[in-house]
Structure formats: structure tokens, C-alpha cells
Amino acid sequence: MDRFNLNSQLEHLQSKYVGTGHADTNKFEWMVNQHRDSYASYIGHHALISYFSVAQNESIARVKFEFVEKMLQPCGMPVPRDE
């Protein structure tokens, strides 16, 4: 009974949150989710974005813009899937 409950909770989380993955998630999709989550966290936390802007000698707005641009394709072009 516990196993069914655990699987039910896992399926609910996977349907609710995209980044948790599922049985058919490949390595590329997993890495894209990880990179996008990281960039979203950097943009959302002012201290982190300030750190990056000082380290790169750029304005905060420029660093935010670059991170948003990188969120489009953080790991390059997608790998063709064999279906």
C-alpha cells in the first residue's frame, strides 16, 4: 500500500512541476531544466545577480538580459530523438 501511495505522489509531482522529470525524460531535457532553473534563481535573487554583475564588470540589467537570453536554449540545439 505504501508503494502505491509513493508512486501516486510521485506522479502528481511530475504532472505539477515540469522540472521533476518523468520516465521518458532524457539527459538533454534534464540538463535544460536544470540550467533554466538555475538561471531563474540567479535572476530572482538580487544578491546573486549583483555578484555576477560585479564579477563580469557589467550592469545588473545587462546580466539579467544575458541570463534571460541563455534560458531560451541553455544547452544548445536539442538532440534528435529516436522514436
TrEMBL record:
What cellular component GO annotations does this protein have?
precatalytic spliceosome; U2 snRNP
- InterPro entries per the record? SF3b5/RDS3-10, Splicing_factor_3B_subunit_5
* Taxonomic superkingdom: Eukaryota
Q: What Gene Ontology biological process does one annotation of this record name?
A: mRNA splicing, via spliceosome
Q: Which family does it belong to?
A: Belongs to the SF3B5 family.
Protein name stated in the entry? Splicing factor subunit
Origin species, per record, is Diversispora eburnea
Question: What phylogenetic lineage does the species belong to?
Answer: Eukaryota, Fungi, Fungi incertae sedis, Mucoromycota, Glomeromycotina
